[in-house]
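Retro notes, item 3 of 5
We never archived the inputs for the pyridoxal-5'-phosphate complex last cycle. Fixing that now. Sequence and ligand:
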Amino acid sequence: MSIHYSEHFPEAGHFRDRFRIPHGPGRHDCLYLCGNSLGLQPIAAADAVEAELERWASLGVAGHFDGPLAWMPYHRLATDNLARITGAQPHEVVAMNSLTVNLHLMMTSFFRPSGARRRILIERGAFPSDRHAVASQLAYHDLDIDHDLVELAPRRDGLLHEEDLEDYLERYGEQVALVLWPGVQYASGQVFDLPRIARACQKAGVILGLDLAHAVGNIPLELHEAGVDFAVWCSYKYLNSGPGAVAGCFVHDRHAEFDGPRLAGWWGHDEKSRFRMGPDFRPMRGAEGWQLSNPPVLALAPLWASLEIFAEAGMKHLRRCSLDMTGHLAHTITERVGEHIRILTPLEPHRRGCQLSLQVKAGRKAGRNLFERLEAHGVVTDWREPDIIRVAPVPLYNTMAETDTFVDLVEKLL
Ligand SMILES: Cc1ncc(COP(=O)(O)O)c(C=O)c1O
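Structure as it came back at the time:
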């Protein structure tokens, strides 16, 4: 595979000094390749939380209305940056809740089985929480999971093909009410052509929802342009906003005035009349209309602090750095340890993000052994059953040199 190194600025790792790097053995920085699971802590996150603790201490309830960090609209500090990262208009995105909660809120509104159109299509091997969520939605509508939950299988190459989804919708589209698809598949690291999937759904008259847990902050997204109906994501992976961070939700502009069923709360009610405390619910326009509660300010502080770094770096630059760095890693793995290790992630640049999913050819035991020995040497990757080691160089804080160190060590340990 030929690797193209671009000469653009900033290079991978340019923002490394904005992050706290955990220690490995001997108090050296560990080799952290696990941003696909939990992104590192931006130094600014602690300052942002401290600032809110201080405002709470000094202002009490007045903090809701005081100054540019007023808590009432605090969630909006994240809005413009989230819109840029997801290719959305600001009113199409909101920071709230967690991923699975948002998924249920979205499906309550947009999964509307009727007549023959009542199936949900997901990928086989979907993240368990997504499968639980769709299965429970089907059960909630008294539908039969065996019949109405369709799981599209990967081909023999282990990958899911957009063409197969198109074929399914061509043939059975009239029976499908919702497609729930990942932007990046969590186990294989495969990136999907989301505009193409959106076109297929639109042609079949099917609602498209996306799980962007592994896509947001990793690959460029154009949700508005593609016409995706809704999307949900978490913020603790590539968005570096901390364990269990406040998640995000996108609702396309075409649903901005949505008047169908929704699970409602007072924070989704029109903000101008919210504090009149009336009994009727009048939703906010756009994604904010799905908010339930007043936002958890201390949890939101790291999110907006982290998103400011993305605003500075820019997704286009990060993506180019990522293509270089992950491409380089794939290349060196193939060259030097390819005899022992299979890369499950497709290697064409448009079909991969930061993550590579590795499988040790000698089997699960050897794979687990390598994973544990890497860990003992201060290399943080993660393990996904049955036998996958996921590694993700992240362009904000990882460097090209680290990918070489990783392969040196793998070669030695093998
Ligand atoms: C692809 C994917 N979907 C859903 C989830 C569940 O997220 P949460 O626990 O924030 O609801 C995760 C968590 O890692 C995930 O990776």
